Amino acid sequence: MGPLIRTVVFTVLVPGTVVALIPRWILPTGAPWHADILGIFGLILAAVGAAIYLWCAFWAFANYGQGTPLPLDPPKRLVAHGLCRVMRNPMYVGVGMLVASETIGFRSINLAIYLLIWSAFVFLFVLFYEEPTLQKKFGAEYEEYRRDVPRWLPRLNAKD
Fold first, then answer.
1. What digits encode the pLDDT tens for the residues 125-143?
2. CA dist., res. 55 & res. 157, Å (int)
3. In Å, how far are 22, 39, 75, 87, 151 from 131, measured between CA atoms?
4. Residues 44 and 100: beta-carbon distance below 8 Å
């Protein structure tokens, strides 16, 4: 099974759970998406978040890096171009934007709390697992990347 197929499986299981399954459990049955200006903003946010995740997972990780977003099957090459050149964690940001869009569209305080808990988990996972693992795997190449590219907020003056 190639990296594209493995990425499809990962995407359905992990981000699919984060963005679809857990919010479905959290929201009350029949909760409406508000079709006002905030609801429209939520849809735009969802489209941007999905595009960010899909580009990074399928083009950057599976195609370029020859791996998947799954930590047990990571890219074989350091992915440090495109969106990954302006921030180190665009996939997490994209998924977070999807949950934020649901929070806005459904006007759900419970989804807002879930987003905060998920964000704290992701922050700690990146800090204590991903970054040390990438440092060991890619050494000086990752250190330079880490020095040049911010973790969460996009850098607007990317070098490439």
1. 999 999 999 999 999 999 9
2. 20
3. 27, 35, 14, 14, 10
4. no
Rg of the chain taking only CA atoms, in angstroms: 16
The sign one gets for the Cα dihedral 132, 74, 84, 95 is: negative
Q: Which residue has the tokens 């459904």?
A: 106
Separation in Å, CA 22 to CA 17, 137, 147: 6, 33, 35
| Structural domain boundaries in the chain | 3-148
> Which of 18, 46, 35, 26 shows the shortest CA–CA distance to 118?
18
Give the pLDDT confidence of 74-93 residue by residue, as tens digits. 889 999 888 999 999 999 99
Residue 108, number of CB atoms within 10 A of its CB: 18
Rounded (5°) CA angle 102-82-23: 15
pLDDT at 108 over 70: yes
